Amino acid sequence: MNDTVHLGTNFTHWDWVIVVVYLSGSVAIGLFANRYIRNMADYIVAGRSLRSFISIATMLGSEVGLVTVMYTSQKGFTGGFSAFHIGLCAGIVPLIVGLTGFIVVPLRQARVKTIPEYYGLRFGTGVRVLGGFILTGAGILNMGVFLKAGAVFVTALTGLHDPMVVNIVMTVLIVLVLIYTILGGMVSVVITDYIQFVVLSLALMLTAFFAARDMGWKHIVDTVEMVHGESGFNPFAEGEYGLSYVLWSLFVFGLVSSAVWPTAVIRACAAENVQVVRRLYTFSSVGFMTRFILPQFLGICALVYFWNHETGRELFFTADGAVVADPTITLKAMPCFLAQILPVGAIGIVCAGMLAAFMSTHDSYLLCWASVFVEDVVNPLWGGALSTRARLLMARVFILLTAVFLLIWSLWYPLGQDMLDYLAVTGAVYASGAFALLLFGLYWNRASSVGAYLALIAGAMAVVGLKPIQQLVGLTELLGFQPTGAQIGLVTVAASLVLMVLGSLVFPDSTSAGGES
Amino acid sequence: MIDAWATFWAWVLVGTAIVFSCLAVAVAIGGFFDIRALLKTMERQHQETEDDQGDAGDE
Predict the structure, then answer these.
(1) Shortest Cα–Cα distance, A16 to chain B (Å)
(2) Is B27 in Cβ contact with A197 (below 8 Å)?
(3) Among residues A292, A291, A315, which one has the least CA distance to residue A303?
(4) Helical H segments across A159-230, by residue range
(5) What digits encode the pLDDT tens for the residues A215-257?
(6) How much is the ipTM here?
(7) C-alpha dihedral, A458 to A128 to A409 to A477, nearest 10°
(8) Exposed, middle or buried by CB within 10 Å (0-12, 13-18, 19+), for A506?
(9) Nearest residue in B to A297, CA atom
(10) A446–chain B Cβ distance below 8 A for any pair
(11) Is-above-0.95 flag for pTM?
């Protein structure tokens, strides 16, 4: 981490003032929302009263986070313009979901608060509990690197290099999120997400403008060609991506992140009506695309900047001119670049926007996993007899415990792969099975609970896509080649779909647990 | 081939920036009014619930 100190930063005390004032105001508004919380529906889905614009703001406020900006810019740095294909996939698929209502409209019509609740309606309580358990575990694992990304960002942008100070800053941010999420639930999440969306949009556009102005388009294209060759432009060429990765992008960053990932789907569940759901996805598709394209562009600009920077070139490139393979170093490229090019004041706004985005992702995710754990795991196991007060208390305690776990996990887990790939793999642990259950549960009458169990278990096998797990089980030696996370993810998706069909045909339910929507 | 890809990605980048700017302005303005409506709706829902409970108590 100390290597980046030599690069310097434009961050000053004035920028800290901007950050502190902004974050304090944001938390105060979040706390104000506590007075609107009376029951579990208020807490989880804000009384199902969200209209179109605020639904879009809160969806994008949550999904466009600091972590997103970090890992997508890393992809731009390591993959060049080819990384833009992820943004295209992430924009086109939600647009199709919005226009057709695929998955999200029937889910909203089912009036469920969470996806496992739908499993319960369609396949029975056992599937709901297992699905809720896998979702909570995968979701918390997915969040496990968020703090690490946040710490890297703060260190590189502000020039703070004492690890203790960085840890204190990140812990304070988590505590602030905890305070307003625990007290205000979805209402505070919605209001703070709105503010954070506005500030982050400004910050993103501002940085993209400064970056483009300083680099120049022709200079950018020439440098990407020099470093990455054709694979820096063509995602199907041999190199960083290839066909399997593009297919994986369509599934994970397109379909899963919009229509299966619970923090996005919970917005559909909280929408006022089906028309709002369709509008939400149609318009959010622009945001889903932007959250990849603009940060990736910043990553590309960082590549160009440091290629022509003496110290930066030593840090981010090997002697033969290739990008260094260490993902913890390439992750620092974008914030180090911003620290160099943004002027005083602008860098404070960008930092506040990014930290706000960091908080808005955490609040939504913490609320979502806690809701699922209490509503879909604990309460059903308790026979559905827990009172509203007990469930609210349990959700708040779970949020607190999750935050403690995240602090510990982020300190010791060795990343071993690009952050985006870590997130895709941990997401797939839940999403592979969930996609099969939603697809066949919503659109195929004969889908059975045995098929659902098999699909969930097969989907959870995606955990093998994590590098430390691969090393633990000796997967490369077993297979004779090193599989990528994308290849493992595609196999688990296919396995979940096949097992869902086979299990349903061989072991049909004696009576239909739910209807086709 | 690289030139064609570079031109394509340039259009994608510029198009994204323009459309996102418009969306951000629309959402910033519309979202403000939606939050006001949300808080009013929730207050009304709570009021109706309390009224219903009051009616049930009277019976």
Answers:
(1) 25
(2) yes
(3) A315
(4) 163-215, 217-228
(5) 889 999 999 999 999 999 999 987 778 888 898 889 888 998 8
(6) 0.82
(7) -10
(8) exposed
(9) B13
(10) no
(11) no
